[in-house]
Amino acid sequence: MSSEKTTAAGTVGILGKLLAFLAVSAVVGALAAGLLTPAVAVTGAAVNGSQSMFNSLPADLTVTPPGQVTKILAADGSQIASLFTENRTDVQLSQIAPVMRNAIVSVEDYRFYEHGGLDPIGILRALATNASGGHQGASTLTQQYVTNVLNENLVAQGQGDSVVLNGDKTTGDKLREMKLALGLEKQMSKDQILQGYLNIVPFSGNAYGIQAASQYFFSENASQLTLPQAALLAGLVNGPSYYDPVAHADRAVSRRNLVLGTMLQHGYIKQKEYDDAVKAPLTLALKAPHQGCAYASQAEYFCNFVENQILNDPAYGATTDDRRNLLERGGLTIKTTLDPRLQGPAQAQVDSTTGANPDKWGSSLVTVQPGTGKVVAMAQNSRFLPGHGSGFESDYNFNVDASDANGNPLGGVGGMQPGSTMKPVTLTAWLGEGKSPEQIVDASRRVYPLGYPWKSTCGPVIGAYDSAQVGEGADKDLQNDEDGYYQPMSVRRGIYLSINTATFASAAGLNDFCDIQRAADALGMHDGAGKGAKLSMNTLGSLLGSYNVSPLTMANAFATFASNGTYCTPVSIAEVDDRQGKKIGGQAQDCKANAISPEAAKEATNVLQDVLAKGSGQLIPQKLSVPAAAKTGTNQFNNQTWVVGYTKGLATASFFGDPFNGSDAHPGQHVWVNGVFYEAIDGAYIAGPQWVQYMQKAQAFYDHGDFAPPTPPQQNNQPRQTQLSTQNQPPVTTNPVQPTKPAKGRG
């Protein structure tokens, strides 16, 4: 073989001679015009102009890495989904079967290892063929690689519409590619060029590069290709659509056999190998690539959540388009926190909760690991695409904030009314002030009129309950879900029985009503709109869960109780690596110890354990076999119902209802769900069993030991009050304001 360095200079000289030859002989289709296609006769001046143009063209090619497949992985390394605009996975030349390398060289450029980027013999042969009325090309593999690189560069810059097809190229286009081919041969070895070519060239609209083509047509890696398979793929690059073996099997086989003939002719195979290969039947094992989270192998909505975390993060690009380009072309490896051991049971559970589901009820589960913030499972009973599951299709993620979409139609539904699962926020404020859960409050009180003297240092408290003031803007007297509980009781009993009037009496007994807001903030509570939207706790209705909050927010708040007061921001992305395997991002754990006092967290857990042992959670038919704490919740129309609960190692929000509409348009009353009739759905009835059955399968993989017990009152440095007198509430000046009508908090 000749050295490319010595042949390159000679090729330049030959090119000039060929241009002169064309002018003298007046052969139409000058070399500068493409070497192949007849046109008008050129003059010596034109040739001189072409030579001048050639000399002025750039010789260095900027090789932008072609678009690669991005992989989203679960915590155990299993693949969740792939994202791409071009299905391509680069491989080293050593990972490509020798028969494939030989096949492509033999049919596309058998003098590849002998020329310096342009093939003078090939050019003369093409000129003679075309002058006699035939058609033959003269582009070397190096020139073809240059063409593909230039096209990929345009696509990477968002200028795919500017790609010029071979038949439309100008003289300048052809000369530029020739000059770049000559320059490239000085920068790269032959094997590097061949590797780059085989990784960039399209074999099909479904497969770019040899690895993707091998996977698509034969379900094999490029290293495992047989001789007939390699010959077939080598034949495709000349016309991927025309020779498509799926649509045009006869053409594909004919082209394959032509390639085998060139391999025999140029000594790459022996006669027997040729004879056996041309007799081989066309055997495909198609493995169609699926792009996007809708085709995820598991956790499609978690996948989309992760995708949007990247699109919303400026660390991955200045604009959304930049970030999307990186995501879909960058060949990233995104390692997530998802635990398939939990995801499988979670998905199976939400699917079985609603069954055939003709009324389009939604069910979902989302789990966070306390003390880390890792989102380890996220499931819902709908699917992105028809025919993929329950028959309930939705573009929206039930578990996350509305802002978890960035110009993407697939995003969070924006939360639902959590009902009484919000009551532990008031409990947290109460315990944070050093008050005892055994303290008695006046749960008989139902009237909190306009101008009520709430003790608030951070602004007026909005809302009022007084049937006598309805005409002035107040709501009717405060109601419990059931009669018989309008009586003094302990704060503990008020929580585990989910008594609205007890929660309000606790709020009235706080030293500062604003401690409820502080507790909500410390627990990471925020409005379901997301993007930092504050959940305003100075509105009375918010004490009973009247404002939308996402299940992920609820699960993560309860995880703070499980971790003895340590709040962690939810994280879903452990690490992001670029195509070379270099770490370029990820979400670091962001935890704050003592976000709420450890003592308050332990006390809250102790109270919430009673919910399952002797409170509203007793209505859940099954019991968890390990220590657990939880709170039920139901909105006033019984169509958004919850259980949010936790073990020591897992916190899960379980939702059942209409995720889109918490109004009376789709009430959860007098309805059939999965073959069972419900007079009125309660959090314990459907969301409860869903939570227990899932957690029973999930809890074994994480810490499920005993919770840390609260410090006995006599050993706690903070004094405990024993009883709150309803006659001893010091007046505080607050501005009377118009109330907003809250949802009725229920168990």
TrEMBL record:
It comes from the Bacteria. InterPro entries: Beta-lactam/transpept-like, Glyco_trans_51, Glycosyltr_51/Transpeptidase, Lysozyme-like_dom_sf, PBP_transglycosylase, PCN-bd_Tpept. It holds the Pfam family Transpeptidase. Keywords: Carboxypeptidase, Glycosyltransferase, Hydrolase, Multifunctional enzyme, Protease, Transferase. It catalyses: [GlcNAc-(1->4)-Mur2Ac(oyl-L-Ala-gamma-D-Glu-L-Lys-D-Ala-D-Ala)](n)-di-trans,octa-cis-undecaprenyl diphosphate + beta-D-GlcNAc-(1->4)-Mur2Ac(oyl-L-Ala-gamma-D-Glu-L-Lys-D-Ala-D-Ala)-di-trans,octa-cis-undecaprenyl diphosphate = [GlcNAc-(1->4)-Mur2Ac(oyl-L-Ala-gamma-D-Glu-L-Lys-D-Ala-D-Ala)](n+1)-di-trans,octa-cis-undecaprenyl diphosphate + di-trans,octa-cis-undecaprenyl diphosphate + H(+); Preferential cleavage: (Ac)2-L-Lys-D-Ala-|-D-Ala. Also transpeptidation of peptidyl-alanyl moieties that are N-acyl substituents of D-alanine. Residues 365-648 form the Penicillin-binding protein transpeptidase domain. Residues 703-747 are annotated as: Disordered. Residues 77-263 form the Glycosyl transferase family domain. Residues 714-740 have a biased composition (Low complexity). This is Transglycosylase domain-containing protein. It comes from Arthrobacter horti.
